[in-house]
Structures are given as structure tokens and as C-alpha cells.
């Protein structure tokens, strides 16, 4: 037997290389010495915040936070039904009308003294009100005759005014027979009604050319000119109301190469 004893095998220590050092994770946690410094500042702020909470807890004014599933936390419980908005047949039909008219807002600010329509008169009544009559001085002798000529488009009216009862004789016929429309008769009577002689003078006229509407305009123009012959002082008032102005509106002539005055033939690309 040999006196040699087995030797204990010592573990081999791994060799530390530069690559292992580079790959080793770096512990970025703050050092133990820095922690007390941060914690030292916290107690002062925590003590200041804890004192009001403790006082409020004693008085019972501290509210406990609502659970996550309660109605106060989420605004509505899961059991509530979800209302589905139906799409209206007409867009915007379900919307409420919210309009503030300008006149209504101003009417609230008006007082009874300042409101122009407080007495019950509306703006339409003011517009429809007839103009004030013109004061005329016409010598209505038995043999007085005042003649003039009126025109409108291609119609010509030769008018004679004489004392009478307000009878209109046009080409040997009455005004109702010659002009069946009320609007035309009303326009023809306007000059004498404005002066105030609608029942004191008769009208004898001869019309030719143009249509019914043009003849009515020519007759009105001729009556206005005849009134001017009877009293030259009426020129300002009659002209202000447009009775002496010759209506120059007429149909525009056809142009060469066009179908009418301005209508062009249909464009064809090919």
C-alpha cells in the first residue's frame, strides 16, 4: 500500500475577460447612502397633508371613494338600457327651432311712446296708404278743352279732357268695355284721382297700335300730359309720381344669327 493520499480538487476559477465585464448587467439602483437623503424630505410634506385629513376624518366630512362598479363612479350602471337614436325620415326634423327674430328683440326694448306700431298700425298699412292728393287750379269753363298725346311701346293715345262727370270714352266705347282688366282701369284713373278731378272731368281718347297693356299705358301718359296743359304748376308733383315719364320699355329686336333677341341656337360639339 502506498502512503499517497488523494488530493482534494479545487474548483477552477473562471478567467475574467474584458468581454465578460462589458456584457455584465450594470446595477443602476441608487446607492444606499442616497436613499435616506430623499426620504428625509418626504416626512415634512406627508405630515402637512396628514393633519387636514385627520381633522376632516374626526368631523366626518371625508367621503370614501365610490367603488369602481357603482353608478356614481361610471355615471350609469350596467343595468341601464342603452337608448338608440332613431334616424328621422327627413334630416333635421327632430331638431327644435330656436330663432330670435330681429323685430321681436327690438319690440321688447321699445316703449309704448317709441314704438311706431304701438297704435295698431303696421308697416304694410303705411306702404299701402294712398299718396296725398295734389291741389290743382284748373279752369273748368263749359268750352274748356285740354288735349295731349301719350305713348307706350307702339301704342299711341290722343286724349282730350273736358268738364264732365268722370266718363271715359275710348274709341266710342266705355272704359269697362275697352279694358276688361281691373288693374289696367286702375292705372288709367290714377292721374285724375291724384289731382282730385276724377268726377269733374270727362276723358275722350282715340287709341291705335300696340296691345291692351300698351294702350292702357299710353292713355295714362296722355291724361297726365293733358293735366299739365290745364295747370302747368302740376309738373313737379306729377313728375315726382312718375306720371309724366314715358315708359321706354319695349321688346328687344331680334339679332342676326340668333333665334330671338338673345337666345342662341343650341351648341353642338360634333
Description:
The protein has helices at 18-23, 35-59, 71-74, 102-109, 123-128, 175-178, 182-195, 212-230, 235-240, and strands at residues 146-152, 155-163, 168-170, 173-174, 201-208. The chain is of the alpha+beta class and 270 residues long. The protein has a domain at 146-235: 2-Layer Sandwich (Ribosomal Protein S5, domain 2). Strand 1 and strand 2 (155-163) form a beta hairpin. Helix 7 packs parallel to helix 8. It is extended and about 100 Å long.
Which features characterize this protein?
270 residues; alpha+beta; five-stranded mixed sheet; 5 strands; 11% strand
CATH class division of the domain at 146-235:
Alpha Beta
| Outline type | extended
For this structure, the quaternary state is single chain
**Cα distance spanning the termini:** 128 Å
Task: Give me the number of helical elements.
Answer: 9
Strand order of the largest sheet: 1-2-5-3-4
- The fraction of residues assigned to DSSP E strands is 5-15%
> Residue share in helices?
25-40%
Helix vs. strand class: alpha+beta
Rg over CA atoms: 53 Å
Number of strands: 5
At CATH level 3, the topology of the domain at 146-235 is: Ribosomal Protein S5, domain 2
Give the helices and strands as they follow along the chain. Answer: HHHHHEEEEHHEHH
Task: Give the low-confidence spans.
Answer: 29-40
The residue-averaged pLDDT reads 75
Largest sheet geometry: 5 strands, mixed
CATH architecture assignment of the domain at 146-235: 2-Layer Sandwich
Would you spell out the secondary-structure blueprint of this structure?
Blueprint: H1 18-23, H2 35-59, H3 71-74, H4 102-109, H5 123-128, E1 146-152, E2 155-163, E3 168-170, E4 173-174, H6 175-178, H7 182-195, E5 201-208, H8 212-230, H9 235-240
Parallel strand pairs: 3-5
Antiparallel strand pairs: 1-2, 2-5, 3-4
